[in-house]
Amino acid sequence: MPKILLVEDNEMNRDMLSRRLERKGFQVLIAVDGQQGIDLADSEIPDLILMDMNLPIVDGWEATRRVKAKEETKAIPVIALTADAMTGDQGKALAAGCDDYDTKPVDFPRLLGKIEALLQRAGKI
Amino acid sequence: MPSISSNRLFWQAAVLAFVVIAAAGGAVMLSIGGAWLLKQSLVPATVATVVAALIIGMIARRVNNALAKAHEKIEAAYERMLAQKTKELSQREIELRSTLENMEQGVAMYDADYKLLTWNQRFREFLNMPDEFFSRDRSFVDYLRYVGQRGEFGDQDLETVVKQRIEQLKRKHSFERTRPDGMVLEVYRAPTADGGFIAIYTDITERKRNEAELNRAREAAETANRVKSEFLANMSHELRTPLNAVIGYSQMLQEEAKDTGQEDFIPDLAKIENAGKHLLGLINDVLDLSKIEAGRMTMFIEDANIAAMITEVRGIIEPLAAKNSNRLIINCPADIGTIRTDITKLKQSLLNLLSNASKFTDKGTVELTVARSGTGADETVHFRVADSGIGMTPDQLGRLFQAFGQADSSTSRKFGGTGLGLAITRHFARMLGGDIAVTSEEGKGSVFTLTLPVQAALEEPATVPEAKPMVSGDKEGAQTVLVVDDDEAVHDLVGSMLGREGYRVLHARNGDEALAIARKERPDAITLDVMMPQMDGWSALTAIKADPEISNIPVIMLTMLHERAIALSLGAEGYITKPVDWNQLSALLRQHSRPGAVIRVLIVDDDPEMRRMTRRMLERMGLEVGEADDGEKALAWLAANPAPSIILLDLMMPVMDGFEFLERIRGSEKWSGVPVLVVTAKALEAKEIEFLRSSTQKVIEKGATAGTDLRAAIRDVMKSGAALAKAAN
Fold first, then answer.
1. Which site among A9, A12, A107 would you substitute to test the B interface, given the most B Cβ atoms closer than 10 Å to its Cβ?
2. For testing the chain A interface, which of B569, B570, B575 should be mutated: the one with the most A CBs within 10 Å?
C-alpha cells in the first residue's frame, strides 16, 4: 500500500483529498505546514508527496527544495498543488524540484493519473 | 493724396527754374549786345553803361518778383503736405496704439541693436519689472541680466544664457515661462525686417491649469478603474477557495454514494457540483475580465499542435452539444500543423464559442471548421464556429462583444451566463494578434470566425528593448534603486519619493527589462512588483537570485497580496504590501542597500537643533551618523570610534573651536586624511579662508541652501572616496 504524504494547510482541502486517496487504497500521512512536511518526509520516507505551495512556516517551494536537497529524501516524487490564479507558480514549483504539478481545484481523476504515473516510475506500484 | 501734392510741387519748381534761366539768358544777351555796340563805338560808353544798368536792374526786379511769388507757392504746398503727413502719421500711431493696448497679449518690438522700440501696457504687466526698464535706451540684454539676477534661470550661468538667448533671436521661436508668482507665459519671438525682433507674450496660466486639472481627473479615473479591477481580482480569488470546497465535497460524496450503493443521492449531488462549477466559471470570467482591464493578463506563447488541441476541445464539447440533441461536426485536417500562440487562451476561446453555440441551438448542428490561409508572416488559422440556432437581430449583434452585454437580459435568465465570454474571447484574440468576426440571422443561426496569426504577434512587443534605463534624478554618487513596476503611477510616486530621499532611481516596466538593467547598472537595491505582464515578479526575482552577478543585490517585493513567505523563500530581502508605506520602504532600503559599505559621518556642532536637522538629512541619505558638541568631544569620539568617512564641522564652538580641532586632526597620523566639510555662519577673514582652503574640502555657509549644498558636497566626497578605493584595488 503506497504511502502518500499530503502537505496542506487548508482543512477542507486536506480532509477531501485524504479521504478520496484513502478510498483509492493509499495510506495517507498529513502535515499542516511546510516544516511538518519536511519532518514527516524525513521520519516516514513516504512513497510520494503532495505539496501545497502556499504554506505557513515554511512554504511549499522551500519545503520541496529541502526535501530534494537531502540524500535520504531526494528520490521521493513531489507533486505541487498550485492555485491556477497565480500564473508562474507552476514554473516556480518545477524550479524548486517538484516532479509534477496539478492546479487547484483538484480534478481528482487527473491527479490520480499523475500520482500513479510517478509511483510507477519510482517502481512503487 | 501725396502723389498729387508732390506733382504740383514739381511743376511749381519747374516754372521757377524756367523763369530764372530765361532772365539769366536775357541779361547775358543784353550784355553781349551792349558790348558789341560799344565795340563798334556806335554808342558812347557812358550812355551804354547807364542803359545797360537800367535794363539789368529792371530785369533783376522782375526776376526777384517772380522768385518771391514762386517761393511763396512752394512753401504753402510744403506746409500742406507736412500737415497731411503729420495727420496720417498720428492716425497710424492711434491705430497702432489702440491695437497694441487692446490686445490680450504683451507686445514689444526691439530695433537692430536689440533696444526697446515699442511696447504695450500688457508687456509691462507680464514682465513685472521696474519702470526704468521700459524706456528706449534699455536693451534686451539688460532685461535678460535683470531676470537672471532675479534668479529665474536657476543655476545656469548668466552669460551663457544671455548668449543662447541672443542666438535664438535670429530665428522664430517660442517657449513657456513660469513667473515666480505662478503666472505661465508663452513667449513668442520673431526677427523683423529691420534686423530687430518682435516679442509677443501670452498669458496661458488658465490654459495650463485646465490642462493640469484634466490630467489629474484622467489619472484619478484611471486609478479608480485600476483599483476596481484589482479589487475584483483579489475578491474573485477569495471567492474561489470556499467554492472549491463545495465542488470538491460534492464530487467526493458522489464517489462515496457510488461505493456504498446509495445511488439515489447521486443526481442531487451532481446538481450541486454543476452549479458550483457554473459559479466557478462565472467567477473565472470576472477574474479574467478584470485582469484584462487592469492590464495584468499575461500571455504564454508556445508552439502547439492544433489537431491535438481540437481533439481535446471535442472531448469537452461533445456532452454539451448532446445535451440539446445537437450534432457536433468537426472539420479539422489531420495535417493542419502547429500554431505559435497562447494555447490555453485559444482553447478557452473555442470552448466559449462552442458552448455558446450548443447552448443557443436545439436539435440542430454545431460545426467547427479549422483552416489555414496566407503565407509567411501573414499566415493565419481560421476557427469557424457555425450553428443552426436562434441567431441574433442586427441590434443584438451590435452589443455582442461588450462586457455584460448579452443580447438582452431575458437571454441570461433563459440561457444563463454572464455575457462576459465573448468580450473575453475578443480581448484574447486581439492580444494574440488576431480578431473575431460574426454574422448572424435571427432564427437561422450564427457564424463566429476566430482568426489568429500562426505566429502570435503580441500587442506589446515581447522582445527585450535595449536596456536603456530611464533615470529620474541626476545624482552622482547617490545610491541607485531600480524600481520595477508596470504601473506608471507607481514609478511616479516611488520615483519622486526616493528622489527626495537622495536616491538615484532607475525604472523598468517588466521583468525582462529589469534583468537587463540590473545586469548593466548594478543598482544598490531593487524594488519589484509581483504582478507584471510578460515576466511576473516571482519569475523576475527567481532570475535575479539565480544570476551570480546580480544575486547579491537586495530585492524588496511590492505586492497586493500577503505572500511574504514566497517572497522570502525566493530570496527577496524585504516585502511590502501595496499601497506602499514610504517610511517602511525607506527603512528597508536603508537597511539593505549597499551592504558592507557603511558611510559614517561625524557632526561637530554645538547647536543641538542644527545637529538634529543634519542627522535627519544624513540618515535619509542612508548614512550612519555620530555627533559631538565641541572640538574636544569630537576628538574623544574619534578616539572611541572607527574613523568616519566625512566630518561636518562648525567653527564657532565652546571649549575647543573648529580651527583648533582642524589643526589637531590634520596634525595627527590617523585622521589627517578624513575629509572635512565646514558648515559655518561665521564671516570669515582672508587668513581664515586661506587656512580652511588648505585643510578642508569645502566651506558651506549656514542658511537656506545649506541642505542642498551639503548633500551635494557629501556626494562629491563619497564619489572621490569611491574613486580612490577603486584606484587602490
1. A12
2. B569
Q: What is the mean pLDDT of residues B53-61?
A: 87
Say how many C-beta atoms besides its own lie within 10 A of residue B706's C-beta. Answer: 19
Is the preceding omega at residue A2 within 30 degrees of 0, hence cis? no
**Residue pointed to by grid coordinates 490680450:** B104
* Contact present, B360 and B415 (Cβ < 8 Å): yes
Does A58 reach chain B within 8 Å, measured CB to CB? yes
Q: Is B287 at the interface with chain A, CB within 8 A? A: yes
The pLDDT tens digits of the residues spanning B323-335 come to 889 999 999 988 8
> For residue B591, what pLDDT band results from cuts at 50, 70 and 90?
low
pLDDT digits (tens, 9 = 90+) for A7-41: 998 888 899 899 999 988 999 999 999 999 999 99
Among B709, B643, B77, B45, CA closest to B634? B643
Q: Indicate the residue of A53, A56, A85 with minimum beta-carbon distance to B287.
A: A85
pLDDT of A61 > 80? The answer is: yes
Cβ pair B391, B440 in contact under 8 A: yes
Contact A105 B566 (CB under 8 A): no
pLDDT: which is higher, B680 or B307:
B307
In this complex, do B252 and A19 lie within 8 Å of one another by their Cβ atoms?
yes
User: How many whole angstroms from its chain centre is CA A70?
Assistant: 16
ipTM metric: 0.74
How many other CB atoms are there within 10 angstroms of residue B41's CB atom? 8
Residue found under cell 481535446: B312
Location of C-alpha cell 475578443: B426
| HSE-up (13 A, CA, CB side) for residue B357 | 32
The pTM of the full predicted model, rounded to 2 decimals, is 0.41
